[in-house]
Design a protein that fits this description.
Number of strands: 28
Order of helices and strands: HEEEEEEEEEEEEEEEEEEEEEEEEEEEE
Structural class: mainly beta
Helix content: under 10%
Shape: globular
Oligomer: single chain
Length: about 350
């Protein structure tokens, strides 16, 4: 009897260890997920010129920020500068991780080697390049423009232009399902265009039906077929079924949105706004959503990107140069070593890292 009791106690002890061995990490993950987002790190870099989109190349752990006549390149983890790509005047950046080629939305488009940051070629495009996206199913780069043609499609391997698409409106942000469809917000039409990436044509339009106007940012839960269209007026996230375009619900966001995304690891959509806020939307189920948090960032911090390794959201903005600040980069507006003129425009580039 004593031997049987001892055996039972040993078995119970083993089960207890196994239970807590499995549950322990789950509890830790749940606790981490329950923590609020906050600003973890900020850096400032002196310079001149306007900014627009920020882009995280998660494969090569680099952060790209077009500014003025350059594309600035930083280490994604340390935020230390690793180089620049000159003579670009770009709005955004996209990278094909397979070919190791980077592209920026400029006229002409500049193509470079992502390892060396050395330019490979320039590619003539029409319109006014603005947003840009790498589409993985076809391994092509989409350069978006508010003027015709709305999208210029480039082979990311050799930089050849393979076609253009009339999207029927002014495109802002896009997201791919990786299987042949591309979804593009049309800011002036209050719609999302659905594109067949193999045929290079629009095959549908999802109307926001007055629920949100001026869609700019876009998040996409590919697994559950849910789109998050982040709109200017009203300042709203319109949440849509990507299969049929039916509106699931709407939620409030901050004002002045210009970027957004979705993190499948945390099941959260996010949007960055010019009013200095970052909105976090929790997807509790494919039909249930809530605003989980509004994080204060900085004014004009309206574009963002996702560091997928650390689940960090990165927002950028600019601030006026402090009195007596000295420029360290050359642009058409200023020369190296020259003091920034008072009232001459933004001087400091702020990189803001938000996480738990």
């Amino acid at each position: 009897m004593l031997e049987m009791k001892t055996h039972r106690l040993s078995s119970l002890a083993i089960l207890t260890v196994l239970f807590f061995g499995f549950v322990g990490p789950m509890v830790t993950l749940s606790a981490a997920a329950a923590q609020p987002y906050k600003i973890l790190k900020t850096t400032q870099t002196m310079g001149s010129g306007a900014i627009d989109y920020v882009y995280a190349d998660n494969d090569d752990h680099r952060l790209y920020i077009p500014r003025g006549n350059q594309v600035l390149v930083f280490d994604l983890g340390t935020l230390k500068s690793v180089g620049t790509i000159e003579n670009t005047r770009a709005r955004g950046v996209a990278v094909d991780p397979k070919s190791g080629h980077g592209f920026c939305s400029s006229s002409p488009v500049v193509m470079w080697d992502t390892k060396t940051l050395k330019p490979i070629k320039t590619i003539e495009v029409q319109g006014r390049p603005d947003g840009i996206l790498f589409e993985p199913a076809t391994e092509r780069i989409y350069v978006f423009s508010h003027a015709a043609p709305n999208a210029t499609v480039i082979d990311s391997k050799d930089g050849a232009v393979v076609g253009t698409i009339d999207l029927g409106g002014a495109p802002e942000q896009a997201a791919s399902d990786g299987k042949g469809k591309l979804f593009v917000t049309l800011e002036d039409k209050d719609k999302i265009a659905v594109v067949d990436v193999k045929e290079l044509k629009v095959i549908g339009n999802y109307d926001l039906a007055g629920k949100g106007g001026g869609p700019a940012g876009l998040g996409f839960d590919v697994k559950n077929h849910v789109l998050f269209a982040f709109c200017h007026e009203p300042a709203t996230a319109v949440i849509i079924n990507s299969d049929d375009g039916k509106i699931i619900t709407t939620l409030p966001i901050g004002k002045g949105v210009d970027g957004g995304g979705f993190n499948p690891h945390t099941m959260e959509a996010f949007s960055s706004q010019g009013d200095g806020t970052l909105t976090i939307i929790k997807e509790k189920s494919p039909t249930e959503f809530e605003v989980a948090q509004t994080v204060e960032t900085k004014p004009r911090g309206k574009t963002c990107t996702l560091d997928t390794k650390n689940d960090h959201i990165i927002v950028i903005t600019t601030e006026a140069a402090p009195p007596g600040a000295v420029l360290t980069t050359s642009t058409p507006a200023e020369e190296p070593g020259k003091k920034a003129r008072k009232g001459s425009g933004p001087g400091m580039l702020d990189i803001i890292v938000i996480g738990r």
